[in-house]
Amino acid sequence: MRIDAHQHFWRLARGDYGWLTPALAPIHRDFGPQDLQPILARHGIAATILVQAAPTVAETEYLLALAAAEPFVAGVVGWADMASAEAPAAIAASARDPLLVGIRPMVQDIADDDWLLREDLVAGFAALERHGLVFDALVLPRHLPRLLCVADRHPELVIIIDHLAKPSVAKGEFAPWSADIAALARRPNVACKLSGLVTEAAARWGVEDLRPYAEHVLACFSPGRVLWGSDWPVVELAGGYDRWVEATEALLVSSTPGERDAVLGGNAQRVYLRRRGR
Q1: For the chain, what percentages of helix, strand and coil (3-state, to nearest 5) are there?
Q2: Which domain holds residue 133?
Q3: pLDDT tens-digit profile of 140-162?
Q4: Domain with 85 in it: what CATH number?
Q5: pLDDT of 12 strictly over 50
Q6: In the beta sheet, which residues pair with residue 31?
Q7: What's the rounded Cα separation, in Å, for the pair 59 and 267?
């Protein structure tokens, strides 16, 4: 089954998308299931993982309600206040919904670069482990050494790096990102999403601009721990869903059929949908 492991919905009137301003004109509007469904059908994608875009419990509840009504949404990665003393109880309560598959704090937007190392997060990470929830790491390259500490502190916690940690493809920056990715890949509890790459590239990007980053991640993690995602509708800022699918096919051209199947859906099914036999 082909799965898009990273997509969003939002309704602007909800008012908690601080990053989503009119400056991002192509995506500064509502996006819902009716917008995505024909795109999925065009590419033979059977299911998606719906990912939070606002750091609020209210948005997570909104996404879970959408997922309950849309058969193609297989799971939701929501948000929780990981630093709160109430985080373990809140995570336990949220985990009762079988559609919740993970939690994603928006680390890239947090001013403290050492936030991941805070002691008051330990109980929250332990709660994610206990309830079988994935930790989606929305991080930037500078956060990767801190994420490595989290992976070592919580070896049973499944961690997925979103968007390859957003290396600057436009500037051709490869080190130290590449070494930090390789170090994280040596931890068996860490995986990586092949997503969000085109929005880090120059406006006139081509597949060869993306290839060194994609090939490095595939080599380090192996195709068994890489998950493909569209990052729709954000991908509309950098060529759109169709063009990213076309680029993905080119990036995976040397992979075996089994490896392609794993990246394009099998890994997402195994990692995200393992809770309660789903």
Answers
A1: 50, 15, 35
A2: 3-277
A3: 999 999 999 999 999 999 999 99
A4: 3.20.20.140
A5: yes
A6: 10
A7: 26
